[in-house]
Amino acid sequence: EYSCEYGSLKFYALCGVGGVLSCGLTHTAVVPLDLVKCRMQVDPQKYKSIFNGFSVTVKEDGVRGLAKGWAPTFIGYSMQGLCKFGFYEVFKILYGNMLGEENAYLWRTSLYLAASASAEFFADIALAPMEAAKVRIQTQPGYANTLRQAVPKMFGEEGIWAFYKGVAPLWMR
């Protein structure tokens, strides 16, 4: 016996919650590593290696500095996970119905790839604004320390486009 019917709203909601938990929590857990990686990419002279990057960050910002960008990471990757896991199931069923039962089985690998790519398209749109804020917080010293500081500043300087400049590279990834 199953907890819900396959393809029901509850099914999609549970898939989405699974995405929130798996993507949001795991990406937030590695924020210190991501912070150092981003800083190494932006300023390789200052952040020469992973261990040096951790050391420099702790010296300058304290241990709490390693958590910079945790809020946009949690929100952004939770939204990405919600869309990725939830829409994957939506598109898998939609495309399967379009192909018919026999063709959906015969072409299942292509169907799964198409459903995954379609879901990722929307998931990256959901992620992009928070990823943009996270990168500004983590790599531009003095720009903003929190999401609440970064969002209005970004919008005031560049408008809505500030939040979606990175969506094409996310799609390429």
Characterize this entry briefly.
With 173 residues, the chain is mostly helical.
Share in β-strands: under 5%
Q: For the terminal residues, how far apart are their CA atoms? A: 39 Å
Helix content: over 70%
User: What's the structural domain tally?
Assistant: 1
Question: What name does CATH use for the topology?
Answer: Mitochondrial carrier fold
Question: Major sheet: size, sense and barrel closure?
Answer: none
Round the Cα radius of gyration to an integer and report it: 19 Å
Shape: elongated
Number of strands: 0
CATH superfamily caption:
Mitochondrial carrier domain
CATH top level?
Answer: Mainly Alpha
Structural class of the secondary elements? mainly alpha
Which architecture does the CATH hierarchy give at level 2? Alpha/alpha barrel
Give the key terms.
173 residues; 8 helices; elongated; membrane; MCP_transmembrane; transport
Describe this structure in words.
The protein is an all-alpha fold. It has one domain: Alpha/alpha barrel (Mitochondrial carrier fold), CATH 1.50.40.10. Helix content is 76%, strand content 0%. The chain has helices at 9-29, 31-42, 50-61, 70-99, 101-106, 108-139, 147-158, 167-172. Helix 4 packs antiparallel against helix 6 (108-139). The protein is elongated. The termini are far apart.
Secondary structure layout:
Elements: H1 9-29, H2 31-42, H3 50-61, H4 70-99, H5 101-106, H6 108-139, H7 147-158, H8 167-172
